[in-house]
Amino acid sequence: MKFEQALPALEWLRGYSRGSLINDGLAAIIVTIMLIPQSLAYALLAGLPAEMGLYASILPLIAYALFGSSRTLSVGPVAVASLMTASAVGAVASQGVVDYASAATLLALLGGLMLMAMGLLKFGFVSHFLSQPVVSGFITASAIIIALGQLGPLLGIALKGATLPSLGHDLYMQLREAHTLTIAVGAGSVAFLLLARYRLSSLLGALGLRGRPAELIVRSAPVLVMAVLIPLSAAMSFESAGVPLVGQIPSGLPAFSAPNISWLLIQELALPAFLIALIGFIESVSVGKTLGAKRRQRIDPDQELIGLGAANTAAAISGGFPVTGGFSRSVVNFDAGAETQMASVLAALGIALAAVLLTPMLYFLPKAVLAATILVAVISLIDFGTIALARRYRAADFWAVVITITVTLLAGVEMGVLSGVGASVGLHLYHTSRPHFAVVGQVPESEHYRNVERHDVMTDPHILSMRIDESLYFANAAYLEDMVFAQAALREDLLHVILMCPAVNAIDLSALEALEEINTRLKENKVALHLSEVKGPVMDTLQRSNFLTHLSGEIFLSHHSAVMALRAKETADPALT
Amino acid sequence: MKFEQALPALEWLRGYSRGSLINDGLAAIIVTIMLIPQSLAYALLAGLPAEMGLYASILPLIAYALFGSSRTLSVGPVAVASLMTASAVGAVASQGVVDYASAATLLALLGGLMLMAMGLLKFGFVSHFLSQPVVSGFITASAIIIALGQLGPLLGIALKGATLPSLGHDLYMQLREAHTLTIAVGAGSVAFLLLARYRLSSLLGALGLRGRPAELIVRSAPVLVMAVLIPLSAAMSFESAGVPLVGQIPSGLPAFSAPNISWLLIQELALPAFLIALIGFIESVSVGKTLGAKRRQRIDPDQELIGLGAANTAAAISGGFPVTGGFSRSVVNFDAGAETQMASVLAALGIALAAVLLTPMLYFLPKAVLAATILVAVISLIDFGTIALARRYRAADFWAVVITITVTLLAGVEMGVLSGVGASVGLHLYHTSRPHFAVVGQVPESEHYRNVERHDVMTDPHILSMRIDESLYFANAAYLEDMVFAQAALREDLLHVILMCPAVNAIDLSALEALEEINTRLKENKVALHLSEVKGPVMDTLQRSNFLTHLSGEIFLSHHSAVMALRAKETADPALT
What average pLDDT does range B384-399 have in this prediction? Predict the structure, then answer.
């Protein structure tokens, strides 16, 4: 491997121009302003101290800038991964094995190492097993859980758990304890952020403000809310009024440290780490591809694994928690004019500056403000469009998305992803386990053979022609046997069965066994088995078994030649007719 | 459902003749003689008191006789299910949750209820997900573990665990403690049983003894060993010499009782119960089909689930443990001339008689004799032929069998089955995730299109024709995108991409998304996307989405008409050429 391939940053660093620096710098300012409240908020969502959000937005950005293959992807804490972190960390921390922060850091380390290993082994294909309905349903369900969970800080009550039933139970039990001033702060923040998100652009446009300055103002909305509410909270002593505040945050940069590792903890966290890493990778690649396509820049999924792996490892050694390429932050970065990953490096410097200078001020920040930031950010992730499309399109896809959403809402994120993958793989196997087999007949005066149920075709009482519309493998081998015997049983004068295989792309060992069984049992009934239109690669594998020597009939290149040859045989041997 | 369908026994009971009764009766005698030592031995293999083996061979046989669909299948304790029972029961019993016997009984109950539920829901297809290499590899590995485990009682030492490393470790640590007299008893029994199995038939034949009498003698070998060694053991007081004996067995029939049920235990045992039931079902159906085919009797897999479910439930309420249709016992039953399940009913009576009359004598039976019975029975299950065949045939099948055997040997039966299923499903998905896509060209002076790499064909610089040799779904959707863009990037003057879909049997939502993406990106590059030879059912699903309205090109019935139409368009609009 060439050095440059391992370090994609070298490509854009060479010949990096002043123009690019200006563009990247301006994008970095917008992204930094957006990231400060978001980082703090997602750390709280993950059940961690707020400063860990800042730490997860410094070194990981630089690591991705060096090793990632996307020019404009922006990594850091994101909503769904933070919810998954909360769930995984909560499970081990509640057992008293370890504190939340150490578990979250170990989660980032494990995920980072797994991603890098997958990248080096070119195992990116594993992510393809998560189907689009599963990913889409999972994100929608997670967003619903996150949004509902924010009702806790917005109402000033403590909602535990990350499933619909537990959130509902807590909400019901504590609703009376809701804190009026906290509600006022939260509702005000949500209202302002919603207005900023959906109206401010057009308002600024009407005032003649467009482009980057307008963008900067719109993206500053969360910081503006903070800028208004921190002094307000300090002046009106929200703290003594009972409004939950962010409180003391250590000032300065994170200390480098090796995560707290124990074998027991690794066993407990391996699966969640893998799922967080995989979902994060899928989200990143999807964002990276979308943005890359707009500028004709290619995303290399295997390099992307290494980039994200490096980012998570960097998070682990600098006091952070799992990070990934976020959709909204990357779009903001792209729209703000970022040309290269230099924008992310500069944003990291911005966050580092914030960690050093701003932390004392954050003491007075009401948590409700951060909850409002999360709420407004995640509602755009809720997308019922896929359910509607899947419902219209295909039952298997519909069930995959419904199962994923239902299990995620009721049993949590891990069970949700696993059930979704199980459902989509299971449904796919089920679907191909009862493939379409058509009894075919000859279209008059042609060499074409079509389904007897759909077309007016000619058949021969001595010959059963069946077209198999699927590769033959373990899940459908038994079904093939059943179908052939069922059709053969309907025909008293049967002498030949021809399986027409133009759509058979593979025959595995279980299916070979089934074909042997069909051959043997037909032979016992004095019926010969033939195959027609067998593809080259399939023929190659069959030749490596003994099937062809056992086969009572022949292999024909075209189905028509098979029928002609077998008819000619009957005429030559009238005893058979 | 008709009453007779629910109770297949009614079919053969009606018009049951005296001749059948004689045949069934003689078969029952042979099977009973074979079953007495086997039942005791498999109970010990499962880590249970010996009498549970007898109990599992009474009521379950009658339950299967009523509800099962095979005329000659013989159910009862079998080697592999007993090993799996030992593993599952050992895991919960070692935690002190419950005693071994209660756990084994609950295992039978759970498995029985699951099988019946699957039968009523017609969920037999679930068993198709266990591919032939996985089942075959699993049985071979289990047989190796069982055979090695018998070295414990044969040497008079205590081997715990059911994996190669733990057996090896125990064997190494205790080899010095091996007990000479026990070894002599064990080695003598093994030698006699091997001789009986592989030589006695031909010896008796040379003496002019053939048919059923000869069969009876051969099958009596294990009982003969018992008949010799029980008096010997009593007379020479093997017990005080330190030979481990079967010891006190309660005399009489099992008491009916409801199994000891707790929610915690059910959670722990649900997965092993399911795996034992599933493996047992697969073994039964495979034996039943083989025997049924010889007499043109049909096996109904869904009825078979109900029959095996009833047998296991019967085992649970009468003090037994998981049972299934065994290969060797069913073949013996069949070969001995059994015509109907009346043979099993009579064999059950024979075992019941043994439980009442013989148990006092079993006190002096050396455990080494039972171990010898198991050892000689399971070595015939070890079959490396499948590995060799799979190796020659197809890499995916080879890896599935190797992974199953390796994991079963090293990590035990449950992990072995699960890894095997995971591997075969994973390999199948991996295989179809990188399907064969061929760039095709026109065979000169024909309407056929073939792979440009294999044939001498004509291509057009403006048209890229790609044939897709697989259904499109989530696992290969990303690969399709990559392939199309990679091929499109090689052609500077490209105007049209035609995807030829004769082997595409389905397009799921993830693949639809990929096609939308391909369409969009090609359109941005002023290239039109067309499809040809789309199958009816696939076209039906596509029409339920918006893809056809977004599609920049057209859908053509035949690939040739697509190429002709697009060429005609170019000629009509010379600006494009």
Answer: 90
